[in-house]
């Protein structure tokens, strides 16, 4: 039979690909086993389908399986299946050449992929997974016999550019791929692939949910120096997402969640869904019961894994879930995700985007349902993940409406319970057209801020926003249910009714005339810090406060942008004075008596500084403020 062996050359692109595989930058060479098992699983599926369609095909499909065989002495690893097998022409066509479009694009991406993760993902996406075997083997042998045929084929190559094809008569049905392994090399991330624990770990990670059993015969210590052997199944085959929800017990969901999330507690909510139509997939997602420690870390892990036909493809798949839902854990298993040729990668992108849209809508609808039907569980969810979810209000305009529906924030209405925007609108005063909010580091800081005085006195409810993201989303959203979101620390505030405004008009005119000189003088003294000094209608007990114009960037947002390295022009704000406060009236009288007094200018500085501190702001020169204050206090003793 050896006289009939043929030595053939690889297609030119295949030679280039083999060189890249063998000498490339892949650090995770373990994926070779994923690819061989995936090919074997496909062969088993094809045999079952062929047997159903061709009743004359005499094959046994009762025990379809994959076997992994190890010879530690010869340092070989064999992946064997009893599937459909290949004919001689198929061996040459499938393995000897890459008869696919897009090969040049594949080679370009392989060369340009600088990091191991990006490179690794390319394996398996162009139908070239078999070549991954040469990353770990000096020589690869393949024996195969197609179901229904008498003779088989042996294929051999060392990956140097040629391969031999030999007809054989004693091949069992199916395909066996034998790898003559390279020596283990820790520096090159080349593991010992004859070790049982290594094989178990790789199968568990990549192929645990393959529908067919993956078996391996292992040695176990017996009596004395004797050893015994047993055949074990390495994969669980428990793809819960492929089973109807009614057939899965809650305990099974919880066990699976802990497996994929490495979390010790049960999930807060389970989402089991199926997508049908032109693109089919199954998803099993979980909302955890508590936030991970790295929820707000730039290096934090995503939680959704991508499978294709139960074969693990990608961990932390950010294409499937937006960043603001990064805490969602689980798997998505696509049936028909095309990963073969470059022109289909564009189709893949469209498919993935469609899946992402459906997953996001389902997760948000689940949270909305929790809010309506299980408020206690919703409160747990919002306390753990609310700050992250609010990020979606910034960049997910498609789902902004439902995000606003599930939003909960603190307000002055209740010292303990949160409120939603619909609840706020339902409690608005007659004639109130705006939704008022205040931002700050804590509820206590906001409630004690001078900006709140008029609203407290008039009984207006104010939303109390304490997360850094609040500074951004309220600006981006702008309004809710036709009501403008308005900061209590920006623009002019006038909460009086029309009747109250008419009654107070003459008093306001008198005050404006009375304080005109003081306001002009203070505007000059504090010109480096403020753009205007004016009388306030929002203060009742404090002497002064600092506010921004309606469209000014807030100091907190300014600091956030600077911390991220953005150049932001310094924004001067407005100092408002309470004309009824003894300090302000005293300052006016002192100014009338002697505007040139240097101590008067220091008083103006102190007044501005205390207004900044009262809102939780930062002083430009804390040491100068402390020195002036100490001098003033010393004079009172």
TrEMBL record:
Stretch list, region B: 344-559
Compartment(s) where it occurs, according to its Swiss-Prot or TrEMBL record: Cytoplasm
Major subcellular site: cytoplasm
Sorted UniProt keywords: ATP-binding, Chaperone, Cytoplasm, Nucleotide-binding, Stress response
Region spans: C: 560-637
Ranges where the Histidine kinase/HSP90-like ATPase domain occurs: 28-185
SUPFAM superfamilies on file: ATPase domain of HSP90 chaperone/DNA topoisomerase II/histidine kinase, HSP90 C-terminal domain, Ribosomal protein S5 domain 2-like
Annotated Pfam families: HATPase_c_3, HSP90
Sequence segments annotated as region (A): 1-343
InterPro entries in alphabetical order: HATPase_C_sf, HATPase_dom, Heat_shock_protein_90_CS, HSP90_C, Hsp90_fam, Hsp90_N, Ribosomal_Su5_D2-typ_SF
Superkingdom per UniProt: Bacteria
Listed PANTHER family: HEAT SHOCK PROTEIN 90 FAMILY MEMBER
Family: Belongs to the heat shock protein 90 family.
Role: Molecular chaperone. Has ATPase activity.
Complex and partners: Homodimer.
Protein's UniProt name: Chaperone protein HtpG
Naturally occurring in which organism (per UniProt): Micromonospora qiuiae
Gene that specifies this protein: htpG
């Amino acid at each position: 039979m050896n006289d009939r062996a043929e030595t053939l050359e690889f297609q030119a692109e295949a030679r280039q690909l083999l060189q890249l595989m063998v000498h490339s930058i892949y650090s995770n060479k373990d994926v070779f086993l994923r690819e061989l098992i995936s090919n074997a699983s496909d062969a088993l599926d094809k045999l079952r389908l062929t047997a159903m369609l061709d009743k004359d095909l005499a094959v046994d499909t009762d025990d379809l399986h994959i076997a992994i065989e190890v010879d530690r002495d010869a340092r070989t690893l064999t992946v064997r299946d009893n599937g459909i097998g290949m004919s001689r022409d198929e061996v040459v066509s499938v393995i000897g050449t890459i008869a696919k479009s897009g090969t040049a694009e594949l080679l370009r991406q392989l060369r340009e992929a600088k990091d191991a993760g990006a490179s690794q993902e390319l394996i398996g996406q162009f139908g070239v997974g078999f070549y991954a075997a040469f990353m770990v083997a000096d020589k690869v042998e393949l024996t195969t016999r197609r179901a229904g045929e008498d003779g088989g084929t042996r294929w051999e190559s060392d990956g140097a550019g040629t391969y031999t094809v030999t007809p054989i008569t004693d091949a069992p049905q199916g395909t066996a791929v034998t790898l003559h392994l390279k020596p283990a090399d820790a520096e090159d991330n080349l593991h010992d692939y004859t070790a049982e624990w290594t094989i178990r770990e790789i199968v568990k990670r990549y192929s645990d949910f393959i529908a067919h059993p993956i078996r391996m015969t292992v040695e176990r210590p017996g009596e004395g120096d004797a050893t015994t052997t047993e055949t074990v199944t390495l994969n669980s085959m428990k793809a819960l997402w492929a089973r109807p929800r009614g057939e899965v017990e809650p305990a099974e969901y919880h066990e699976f969640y802990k497996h994929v999330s490495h979390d010790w507690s049960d999930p807060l909510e389970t989402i089991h869904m199926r997508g049908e139509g032109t693109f089919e997939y199954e998803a099993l997602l979980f909302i955890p019961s508590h936030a991970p420690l790295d929820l707000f870390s730039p290096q934090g892990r995503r939680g959704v894994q991508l499978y294709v036909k139960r074969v693990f493809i990608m961990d932390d798949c950010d294409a499937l879930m937006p960043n603001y839902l990064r805490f969602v854990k689980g798997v998505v298993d696509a049936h028909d995700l095309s990963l073969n040729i470059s022109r289909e990668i564009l189709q893949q992108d469209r498919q993935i985007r469609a899946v992402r849209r459906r997953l996001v809508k389902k997760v948000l609808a689940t949270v909305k349902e929790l809010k309506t039907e299980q408020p206690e569980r919703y409160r747990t969810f919002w306390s753990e993940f609310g700050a992250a979810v609010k990020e979606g209000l910034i960049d997910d305009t498609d789902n902004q409406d439902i995000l606003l529906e599930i939003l909960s924030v603190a307000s002055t209405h209740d010292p303990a319970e949160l409120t939603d925007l619909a609840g706020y609108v339902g409690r608005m005063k007659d004639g109130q057209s705006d939704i008022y909010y205040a931002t700050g580091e804590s509820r206590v800081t906001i409630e004690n801020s001078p900006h709140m005085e008029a609203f407290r006195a008039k009984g207006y409810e104010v939303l109390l926003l304490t997360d850094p993201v609040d500074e951004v989303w309220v600006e981006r959203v702008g309004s809710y249910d036709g009501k403008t979101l308005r900061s209590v620390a920006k623009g002019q505030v006038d909460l009086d009714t029309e009747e109250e405004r008419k009654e107070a008009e003459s008093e306001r005119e008198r005050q404006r005339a009375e304080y005109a000189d003081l306001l002009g003088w203070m505007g000059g003294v504090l010109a480096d810090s403020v753009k205007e000094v004016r009388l306030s209608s929002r203060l009742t007990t404090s002497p002064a406060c600092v506010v921004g114009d309606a469209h000014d960037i807030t100091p907190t947002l300014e600091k956030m942008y600077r911390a991220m390295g953005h150049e932001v022009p310094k924004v001067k704000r407005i100092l408002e004075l309470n004309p009824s406060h003894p300090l302000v009236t005293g300052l006016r009288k002192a100014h009338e008596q002697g505007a040139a007094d240097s101590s008067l200018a220091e008083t103006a500085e102190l007044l501005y500084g205390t207004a900044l501190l009262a809102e939780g702001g930062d002083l430009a020169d804390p040491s100068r403020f402390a020195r002036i204050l100490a001098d003033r206090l010393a004079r009172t003793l």
